Amino acid sequence: MTKEELIQSENLVYKKPRLLNDTTMHYCPGCSHSLVHKLVAEIIEEMNIEGDTIGICPVGCAVFAYRYIDIDWLEAAHGRAPALASAVKRMWPDHLVFTYQGDGDLACIGTGETIHALNRGENITVIFINNAIYGMTGGQMAPTTLMGMKTSTCPYGRQADLHGYPLQITDIAATLPGTCYVTRQSVHTVANISKAKKAIRKAFENSMNHKGASFVEIVSTCSAGWKMTPDKANQWMEENMFKNYPLGDLKNE
Amino acid sequence: MGRMRGVIVVDEERCKGCRLCIPACKLGLLDLTSKKVNRKGYPYVQQTNWEECNGCTSCAIVCPDGCITVYRKKTEE
Ligand code: SF4
Ligand code: SF4
Predict the structure, then answer these.
(1) B interface toward A at CB cutoff 8 Å?
(2) Residue B53 to chain A, least CA–CA distance (Å)
(3) Of 3.40.50.170, 3.30.70.20, 3.40.50.1980, 3.40.30.10, which CATH number belongs to B2-70?
(4) C-alpha atoms less than 13 angstroms from C-alpha of A37 in its C-beta half-sphere
(5) ipTM of the complex
(6) Is the model's pLDDT at B1 over the cut of 90?
(7) In angstroms, rounded to a whole number, what is the distance separating the alpha carbons of residues A96 and A51?
(8) pTM score over 0.95
């Protein structure tokens, strides 16, 4: 059998989702953001709701998400994505409305908006990319930076007396009565990608069925900020991030 | 006895040479170009021995940028 005989549309088993634009994503090689974008595009395509979906972009590395997934988007002020999503969902209750935010946007400048939108039980999905560092601005310490972890603003490692502790925002989300589904996933292996995809799909379905707020944390890598190759970053994440941010459902109602 | 035959097509201009797909292929069929780079300056992934590929799609699933398309067919060989 020749390559040409095999490369026929009837033999196609995997390709880039149609909703993921041909525009090259600006993310660094191996970035978890790219993979989560791919999953979001796949899920919206499979749910067949591309015309009824409104995403809310954050400020941070994912600020240009609207260039990459072919759905309607709004750009929020820094940290305000859950507030904007609340308004949009109330105006368009039959639409899927989700935010896509990093740890700086969601767990630092936007902590108030995050907690209150979740606590009000807004029928939205919050996708939270936690790579424990500020990627876009040059690798500064984030609220979720691990103890002892080195960043450009804590070059000797995060210390409790100077910097306090990693903020467990996902655990907080699970305690709020307004949330119906809170889960922590990763996208570094085939099996984890499949679980993360199911989790995001479930969150989207909850939002469409008006079950309350769904919160999906993706424990992620930032190979540029962590100063490692993407492969090494995955390994470092397994060895260090998962201890502080263990994978699994925190709440599923 | 038939077997699954597969082949991948890499979008060479989209590939960023991150290498994540390389260990994902349990048959070790992938490697980066050693002398050539794409227009963005990245070496890109190639299938070194496509005859062995079974079209399992692992490499394509872990590629963050969606650069890999997979074709698969059962053959009678
Ligand atoms: S489809 Fe599977 S066997 Fe073929 S190159 Fe990719 S990972 Fe390897
Ligand atoms: S995972 Fe994708 S972007 Fe990375 S080297 Fe492989 S094909 Fe290229």
Answers:
(1) 5-7, 9, 11, 13-14, 16-20, 23-24, 40, 42, 50, 55, 57-58, 60-62, 64-73, 75, 77
(2) 11
(3) 3.30.70.20
(4) 34
(5) 0.95
(6) no
(7) 10
(8) yes
